[in-house]
Amino acid sequence: MTDRFTGVITPLLTPYNDDSSIAFDLYLDHAAGCLADGAHYLSPFGTTSEALSHSVRERIDALEKLVENGVARADQLMPGTGLCNLEETLTLSRHAVELGCAAVMTLPPFFFVKASDEGLYRYFSQLIEGVGSDALRICLYNIPQNTGIAVSPALAGRLNDAFPEVVVAYKDSSGDWDNTKAVIEAAPGISVFPGSESVMMRAMALGGGGCISASCNTNVAGIRALYDTLRAGDDEGAKALAPQIDAHRDAVQAGGLIPGLKGLKARQTGDARWLNLRAPLMPADPALAGPLADTLARL
Amino acid sequence: MTDRFTGVITPLLTPYNDDSSIAFDLYLDHAAGCLADGAHYLSPFGTTSEALSHSVRERIDALEKLVENGVARADQLMPGTGLCNLEETLTLSRHAVELGCAAVMTLPPFFFVKASDEGLYRYFSQLIEGVGSDALRICLYNIPQNTGIAVSPALAGRLNDAFPEVVVAYKDSSGDWDNTKAVIEAAPGISVFPGSESVMMRAMALGGGGCISASCNTNVAGIRALYDTLRAGDDEGAKALAPQIDAHRDAVQAGGLIPGLKGLKARQTGDARWLNLRAPLMPADPALAGPLADTLARL
């Protein structure tokens, strides 16, 4: 990657039919809408996508459907590919590379919460060597509150040093600004994406890549406007945009993030299937979707 | 299951060749040895087995090899089947039922660390209905230090009430005796297996089922003797056996549990492949295996 990997990236919600299968009609419409509203990339199968509630087969199928139906070009996609085991992480990552995806977003092997940085380095090295393609680009995915194990700034720096053309990005969903800042400093070759637009301004001021945020599912136009304003160096303009964006995020988060986003989509599309989440998560409460939509309409 | 599910259960180590594939020659020998030394059941693909470092395909294959090679009868097996997603957990659980396994040992869908008991109940209900077989027996697998989410005593009780013929056991690897005791009290229909032989005496006194312990890989004869002594009501005999058993466990734990067990197996068998662990874990240190074997020889 000669150009630095930057932009506003939507970790795509996954809508379900009432039998819990993926509702592809809603999925493709939603993906198309996010791109039309300004997302640079889509990231199917992040945490907001309920990624870990899907089989390998379902993930491969959904990714292909986005491309085959002409909703997204493969180079607009950065699918999540990280599982606990190397074989299936390789399967997903190879598939994404063969499809022509821009990058893959890869969790550390969770469950192994006591693994050392040395062990994680060993794992990611085996992944990179296993894929064995010059086209592979990896965005390390740090979300220790769910995985129980962090991708440390030192590990990110070491991986970027060893594989500068491959390990090119880091998504930080820790919500810990000190960590975000430490990765930017420890791995200057890496594009760091905070998991929230609320710190995008601070991150981009230090060289961060943009953001990969759940609320890009419902407010990507606003977030893209903020991004463009920051890229243009218009800090005053950015400050003017921030309150609407923060208020949107706060409102969705108050709805429980995924249920909040899905409730809002149900309200906006009039399709109650958007209320479905897979177990162990619970369906979104339609009674909350109305007030949420009203709150956002006032913004 | 008319009889209560009880016994000493070995969560089977998984040995690897130097290319990280499963070393089936060592695996089958080890499984046969555990049964010959007194294990009532084998549990392939628990945490000690590095379960989450294996693909669905590898787990199915290994289970079939144990049966096809005549090493274990299917009704001596309780494989781990719990992943984060329902579809692949169903695949593994259905396969185990079709093979004729005694039970399956199932993690809650980890990664979803904020899931409610209601959400977990929904998940396990969908699993049980999805397998749709009277032959299904589930051992709930509680290891919150790795999964980030506990199977609460109340949830165990509720599942046993709703599915009394299916949800018949609970493995408690939390190391929290208060939780073990609370499950025995909240779910009297369930057979509770502590994850350590060190509390087997206390658990069995309250009606617990035995134990499922990592050290059954290297000390199953000793643990079986303790179990038989407790079943015979010989508390004095049990107290006499306990120090050797606790010392064995302490020594293996000091070696880092899985690396400790594998290091000891490498020393005992003279086969250095036993030192291999899959990333993100690191290989066992052969320099520690010698002193560990010497410590155990002195016991």
What does this structure look like?
Chains A, B: Keywords: Lyase. Two copies of one chain form a homodimer. With 299 residues, chain A is α/β, with parallel strands linked by helices. The first copy, chain A, has one domain: Alpha-Beta Barrel (TIM Barrel), CATH 3.20.20. Chain A contains twelve helices and seven strands. The first copy, chain A, has helices at residues 24-36, 56-68, 86-99, 117-131, 144-147, 153-162, 177-186, 200-205, 220-231, 235-254, 258-269, 286-298, and strands at residues 7-12, 41-44, 104-106, 138-142, 167-172, 191-194, 210-212. Chain A is globular and about 50 Å long. At the A-B interface, helix 2, helix 3, helix 4 and helix 5 of A face helix 2, helix 3, helix 4 and helix 5 of B.
The strands making up the biggest β-sheet of chain A line up spatially as: 3-4-5-6
Overall pLDDT metric of chain A: 95
Low-confidence stretches of chain A: none
The total beta strand count of chain A reads 7
Major β-sheet of chain A, in short?
4 strands, parallel
Write down the CATH topology of chain A: TIM Barrel
Q: How would you describe the oligomerization state of the chains in this entry? A: homodimer
| Strand content range of chain A | 5-15%
Count of individual helical segments of chain A: 12
Structural class by SSE content of chain A: alpha/beta
Keywords (chains A, B): Lyase
Active site (chains A, B): 141, 171
Binding site for pyruvate (chains A, B): 48, 212
Organism (chains A, B): Roseovarius spongiae
